[in-house]
Amino acid sequence: MTLSRRTLTLAVSAAAFCLAAQGALAADKIALVAKSSGNGFFVAAHQGAQEAAKALGGVEIVLASPAKATAEGQIEVINTLIAQNVKAIVVSANDPDALVPVLKKAMARGIKVVSFDSAVRKDGRLVHLAPSSNALIGQKLVSLTTDAIGSSGEIAVLSATAQATNQNLWIAEMKKALAQPAAKGLKLVSVVYGDDQTDKSYREAQGLLKSYPNLKAIVAPTTVGVAAAAKAVQDEKKVGQVFVTGLGLPSEMAGHVHSGVVKSFAIWNPIDLGYCAVYIAHGLVSGKATVSVGAKIGVGRVGTVTLDTNNEAVMAEPFTYDAGNVDKFAKFF
Question: Where are the beta strands (DSSP E) in 38-141?
């Protein structure tokens, strides 16, 4: 049988399409599960994850997040990812314990599980990547506070969810730093929770301003909370009377720095965090990375991280942003 030129062209095109589809299917799917959708921190982390996928080759990033920062929402998302048979799940936990059963189910199916930012309990993941050490973060939060208001005055904390692993550890370390002689003049009057929702965080900040008329600072170790608190202080016309600091994104905080509500704040680079987490997950999927005390795992342009006795690794210490550098970094995240 003789094929016409048109038929032959169609056949070749179809074959090429099939090969391309097979190539796409062959990519290792690594899912990035954020605390909630629309959170700027995780949008930046997703950007880093995509950079890692491009650098590694043969990796497809699947961004999957619940609408609100709840453990139930993440469990539903993870069950869907298990059904999709992704190769790895990289998750920032809304609850360290509640996610363990579904993540154990994932690991039983051969899916590699890495937590980052906010840890999952050790039996629910293979590796945890902390953006920084808890002690350094707690100390940094106190240092930022004293930079803003000096060594005395009433302060309050606006956190994410009451169950957020990372938030609770950082607040505990912050309390240790507050107990030191250099910070004895600072009085922590309240810890409130905005559940990483802008509206609720804003209302909680307003509540602090009304409940504590002598309040000098609101410290928010959450990117959603710190921006909401800064807006509340500005709206209540307390600029210069109450300062806001904590962990925030330069793109969201630049205006508050220039308005005078915020003198300085800190954050690690979420782009690098997403990048490193994907490198670790890919190392586990490919078998190039091993999980053992002291094991070093390559994380591309960032270098290497080292696992401790809890199979946790630290990426870097927090970096301070202020009027001198915030605009430069706001262009990136």
Answer: 59-64, 88-91, 112-116, 127-130
Q: How far is CA 70 from CA 77, 87, 163, in A?
A: 11, 24, 10
Q: Establish how many alpha carbons lie within 13 A of residue 302's alpha carbon, considering only the half-sphere containing its beta carbon.
A: 29
Residue pair 75/68 in contact by the 8 Å Cβ criterion = no
Q: What is the DSSP string of 232-252?
A: HHHHTT-TTTSEEEEB--HHH
> What pLDDT, in 10s, does the model give residues 174-206?
999 999 999 999 999 999 999 999 999 999 999
Q: How far is CA 109 from the centre of its chain?
A: 26
Question: What whole-number distance in Å separates Cα of residue 283 and Cα of residue 271?
Answer: 19
47-78, pLDDT tens digit by residue? 999 999 999 999 999 999 999 999 999 999 99
261 CB contacts (<8 Å, ≥6 apart)?
Answer: 230, 233, 234, 239, 243, 244
What values do phi and psi take at 88, rounded to 5? -150, 150
**Predicted pLDDT at 317:** 84
Question: How far is 178 from 188, CA to CA, in rounded Å?
Answer: 8
Specify the DSSP class assigned to residue 302.
Answer: G
Angle at 171 between CA 168 and CA 175, to 5 degrees: 140
DSSP one-letter code for 174: H
Residue 217 DSSP SS3 = strand
